[in-house]
Every structure is written in structure tokens, then in C-alpha cells.
């Protein structure tokens, strides 16, 4: 197990210089904007709060600067401040927080250390994984930016996420996604045995099974994450929120491009199943438990088994908000069903 006393010296590999594959853009660009926007100014008072008050301030979480470079510095500063508060409030966690966060100089080093410890086994050593993760993150700014965007997504979309450090340490959906990004990078470098071994460990540890060839954007929230399955040729856009037990699968044993393409800003409810090479348009909403086998137009809602469009196939009801960010699961009910308990 890695400790802060025996961190290995890492030398970036020339094989990790290519940037992350950009996900496909699905659907036409309209009024809908599926980008994270700062609605609340940075609240410096949060930094001065006692630990217990800070945890209760989740709804008023501060927002980062708009500049990407400043955002990364701001985010890491927030994470370290939160870890210090937690260490003071709960001494039992002080050593853990020091070795995982406070002893590191950057988010990519902390994340690499944490993932190495989480995913190691008796034959896949934590030192080897730390070196692998750090080499990949440190040489690819796109991966670092994606990790920051995913942290922000969890903090602002999930009311149960009390802090950035809580997400970094405890959100297995976030950790599985970051580990997948490294596995995907390995896959594109033709280091496929290692990519597949990493996929297997991610599935074992986090109960999230994402094929290393699958392409995932940034600003992703895997909420709860247990049982999420993403197939080999699947593509997930930016600012997408996916709940537990969601399957993006194929329809048989035929190879080729056979998995769903998820547009920007999509929300997929718990237990939904989307099968085949179908397009889920930008800003669409898939209701919990739905089974989707055909394309879903942008900014529409599909619900049921088999899924139907709210408002009907000819003139489906369209929404203006970005459901992947608003996390609105139920506003369509009155237009879809008169079911009453």
C-alpha cells in the first residue's frame, strides 16, 4: 500500500502525449446550452467556516473562476482547505487525509495516489498504478481538465455531495470515470492488455463496467454508479448525468458500431437501458427504468418499456432546460400519465 513516505518518482512516458478523444456531438445546436455556468459568486466566507457549518452549506457551494488555469488552482485550494477542516473535526481521519490529499502538490498527484490505492491488488501493485496514472494525467491537460469538470459536476448537481474533497475521496462514480479515462488512453495507444486489466479492476472495485474503447466527454456525473455498463463503441457527450444501473449496450453478437451515442446535456434515469447504435439527442431525458431501442430527438423525454416520447411521436413535448445539469427527473409526469397513487 502506498504511503506518503514512499511515493515513487515518476517520469512521464512519451506514449502518453496524445489528447483525449473528443466525444461525438449529437443533435442540432439550438437555444439549449449544456455548459456549466456559474450562478453564484465565489463565497470566501466558506473557507473560514468551522467544519460542521461548511458541510451544512452545500446548497451555497462557491463557484470557480471561468479561466481554466485559474479554475484548476482554485479547485485544488478548495479541496485542501476542506481536507484540513475535516482533519481538525475528525482526528481519526487526519492521517488518511494527509496521505491522500494534504501531502500532495496537485490534484493529479492526489488522484493518482488515491486511484492506485483503490485499484491495486496482490499482483497489480499500487506503486505501478500510481506511476501509470500520474504519467498519464501529468502529460495530458485534457484529462486534468476533464477530472476538474467531473468534480464540479458532482458538487453542483448532487445535493448529497457536501464538498469537493468528499467527491474526490468517496464518489466511486467519479473515481471509476477517471480510471476509465486512463484505460481509454491506453487503448488508443494500442496498450490493450493493460487497458483491459484496468477495466477489470474498475469493475471489481467500483461495480462500474466501462469498455476502455468507449469515449466519454467531460462534466460527467455517474450518480451512485453501481451497475453502470457502457459498451465498446458507446459515446457519451459533455455534461451528461447517468444514474445507477444504466446500460448502454448492444443488441447481439454482431461486431462493429453497435452501442448508443449520448448527446451533450442528457439525463439518464436509474435502471434505464439503451440498446443498439441509437442517438440520444442533445438535452434529451430518459426516464428511470425505460428501455430505448430507437433514436430520441433533442430536448425530448422518453419514458417506459418500450420507451415512448412524452407528447407523442409526431409532436413530442420539448423542454428548454439542460436536464443533465438540472437533474429534473419528474417534471414530465403530468404530460405523460394520469396515474395517481
From TrEMBL:
Ranges for region Disordered: 1-23
Family: Belongs to the transferase hexapeptide repeat family.
NCBIfam families from the UniProt entry: cysE, EPS_EpsC
Enzyme class of the recorded protein, top EC level: transferase
Range of residues in the leader sequence: none
Keyword Cytoplasm carried by entry: no
Pathway: Amino-acid biosynthesis; L-cysteine biosynthesis; L-cysteine from L-serine: step 1/2
CDD domains with a match to the protein in the record: LbH_SAT
Domain of life: Eukaryota
Keywords: Acyltransferase, Amino-acid biosynthesis, Transferase
Gene3D superfamilies linked: Hexapeptide repeat proteins, serine acetyltransferase, domain 1
UniProt organism field: Datura stramonium
InterPro entries per the UniProt record, alphabetical: Hexapep (IPR001451), Hexapep_transf_CS (IPR018357), LbH_SAT (IPR045304), Ser_AcTrfase_N (IPR010493), Ser_AcTrfase_N_sf (IPR042122), Ser_O-AcTrfase (IPR005881), Serine_acetyltransferase (IPR053376), Trimer_LpxA-like_sf (IPR011004)
PROSITE patterns: HEXAPEP_TRANSFERASES (PS00101)
Annotated Serine acetyltransferase N-terminal domain residues: 75-179
Record-linked Pfam families: Hexapep, Hexapep_2, SATase_N
EC number: 2.3.1.30
Protein name, as recorded: serine O-acetyltransferase
